[in-house]
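user: Please review this fold.
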Amino acid sequence: MASWMANGAVYLTRKSIFYLKFIGLFSDKLILMQSFRRKKVKKKKIIIPLLILGLLGYGVYWAFFDMSRLPKGDLISEVSSPDGTYTLKTYVSNGGATTDFAVRGELTFNKENKKPKNIYWNYHEEKANIKWIDKNTVVINGHELSVPNETFDFRR
């Protein structure tokens, strides 16, 4: 009689099931248990690779595209919004011999107790021209942003 074991469960081949049914030692409950165990193993084979792929994808995003991990840089300007709700500080970041200068814009909340938020990151720039259009709209080097929700990142 052909059968095999995995994870402590006995899996029967079609031929062995036929013989057991023939002699009356095999029931339909055993068939249901066997198919349930196989489905459980198939689910694990699908879920584990998807979980690994998801973690890998998040790791790539965190390492290369997360704006909270930008370099600090040197302060080049600081401009407040017309109503004083926000202050936009811009920094120039020198990447060294291998990369060009980049400008990072950090939005500070003056009237709320929130941590500063990076809203601007552009490559091949050394200066920041900042102009507030109204209390919630700012233009940084030609890129118009609605603060505090919009961001500009040259990598996206």
In short: The first strand starts at residue 3 and ends at 6.
